[in-house]
Every structure is written in structure tokens, then in C-alpha cells.
Amino acid sequence: MRILLIGGTGLIGGAVLRRLAPAHEVLALSRRAEGDATLAAAGATPVRGALADAADWAGDLPPLDALIQCAADFSAEDMGAAEAPLIAAIEAGALPLKPGAAALYTGGVWLYPAGDEVVSDEATGFEPLPAFAWMVDHWRRLRASPAVRGVCVHPGLVFDDAGRGAIDPLTAALTVGGPVPVCGDPDVRWPMVHADDLADLYARALEGGRAGECFNGVAANGVPVRRIVEALAADRGLPAPTLRPLTPEEARRRFGASADGFARSQRVSAGRARERLGWRARRPVPGASPTTEDMGDCRDAGD
Hints:
The protein contains 11 helices and 14 strands. It is of the alpha/beta class. It starts with a strand and ends in a 26-residue tail after the last helix.
């Protein structure tokens, strides 16, 4: 299968690339020479171009069996505007996608309502954070396009063994010592997933996802941030640290549009991914135990 991967140098896209490259021909979008080298080392063929300039490079590609969109330009003043040319190119047939080609779109759990009293699933209506509401529109347009088999993955808060992703600010603070800053209440719950487990879900959705389907990529349906920090500290042989809640203004200055997401308490189910695709999360999640309700319908995570 020949796949165009967008976002292959990021945390999610890099894990997806490592998962797919051994079995598929992966073309990966790259904005600069450093990205070319990273992608080539992982087994992809770099394609020079930027997400916002899809019209410039779309026609130069060979026929594609699938497209996977994992990129988000957090440096852009308007993230939705940066992605819009790609959605328009797909709708217009400007990308050389074969009939029935899969188009995997990346949404996120921040599109679901806040609140941890109820566990959200794929049937739950969207109530997105305002900064990410454009994702809902783009997914609906992709789902409606007859040019592709649109499938959406909604990742939880993603992390990896190197401490990157959602836990990066927490691990950085533990490294330097002192209070660990958190966005809002330390007891808010984060639905979480390891990048490598998430990549396996993308691979399964690529093969088995039906047109219009969404899958939640969540290993632990909601772990309190306090317990996450305590677990990260324990892994480093440190005592439980002091937590310093940031005000909304402090958090936005530090984390930008993501701050409100980090302060959003949620519980999210991955039941459809398990039932339809046989997906199982295998990597442990900091602060979560398979014997607690945190794991919800993912109780065998970490087996």
C-alpha cells in the first residue's frame, strides 16, 4: 500500500511511521532538510511541502492508496486555516487518491464535552474547545467527500517513554525540581494513550475502518493529573512533589491554545476500537492501574 503521511516528524506521526514503514511504501510530507533526514531514517520517502500549501505539491504525487493526516501547525495563528487547503484538495480531487482510498483524520478527545461524571464514546455529541472547533468541520467535510473512505481517530492525551507529549511539562518540572505547575485543578482527569499503542490503532483503522467511522484512541479513560505526576516522580525515585495550579491566564501564556485542554476533566471510552478492530493498549499509563475504574473498557492495558 502506498500511503501519504502528513505529520510524520511529530509524536503521533512518528509512531505511525514506525508502525507502517516495514510493511508499506510511505511518502511523508516534510518542510525542511532536517525533516527529510528524520523521515528517511525511519523508512519513508520525504515529499517537500507544507500543510498549508497542499495545492502546490498535491499534483506531483504518484497514485495513493491512503492518506493519513496527523499534523497540526501549533505555530500558526489559525491552525484550522493551515489545514484547510488539504481538506479542499481532497474534496476537489487534486490529490491522486485511488478510488476507495482511505483518508485517516486526526481529531482528539478535546472535541468531546468536559466533565468526568459520564464516559464519552463515539456516539457522544461534540462540544469542542473553541480553539479546536475547526477540527469538527474538517472531519465532517472529509466524511462527506465521495473521493475517499474517511475514518477519524480521536487520540487521548499522548505520551511516550521519553516523556514527550502531554506529560512533557510535568517531566521537565520534575527534572529541575520544585513545584510542578498544572493547568487548573490537579484532580482533573486526562484520557491517555501511549504513542506506540495509538499508532497500532491507526494501522488497524487504515485496514478495517469503515467510511465515516470514528475510533477513540484511549488506553486509560481518565487519570487524575495528581496521580500522573506522583507516578512520574516515583519512576524517577523522587518523593511526591508539590503541585502548583496555574490560573487560566498563566496557563494560556505558557501553553497557548492547549492550556484549556489540559484543564479539561474528561473520561473517554475506546470500546469501539476494541470491539470493531480488536485493538488493545499494551503500554502502562502513568498513574493508572488495570484494577481501577481509570482503565474502564481498557482493563487489559499493560498486559
